[in-house]
Amino acid sequence: LGLVFVSRGFSSHLKALRAVEDHEALLSLAQTRLLELEAERSTGNPLSWTHEGTFEPPYYGYRWAIVALPKQGPEGMRYREVQVMVWREDHAASQLRLSAVWPAGWVPE
Questions:
Q1: Would you state the pLDDT for residue 14?
Q2: pTM score, two decimals?
């Protein structure tokens, strides 16, 4: 009887560990994609603005999309909220959204 409870606990622990690993992968991929865009912009070149794509192996099956939402701050200051969304194609619940605020001029219209 004790072994049944131990095996169930172990199974639950493994599921939770997989969920944490998946979340860490999603966060890392989103941060990397956002940093790539920021690095591209910091070179002074205009962004090659692509709205969605996939990742290279070993992250085959992960996709990303970018949305830039116009915002207006105090004193009429214009900026964009850039959202990077990353998800796994084979697991709809595995998704993450990361946001950053950029000057409006950084993002193509």
A1: 84
A2: 0.76
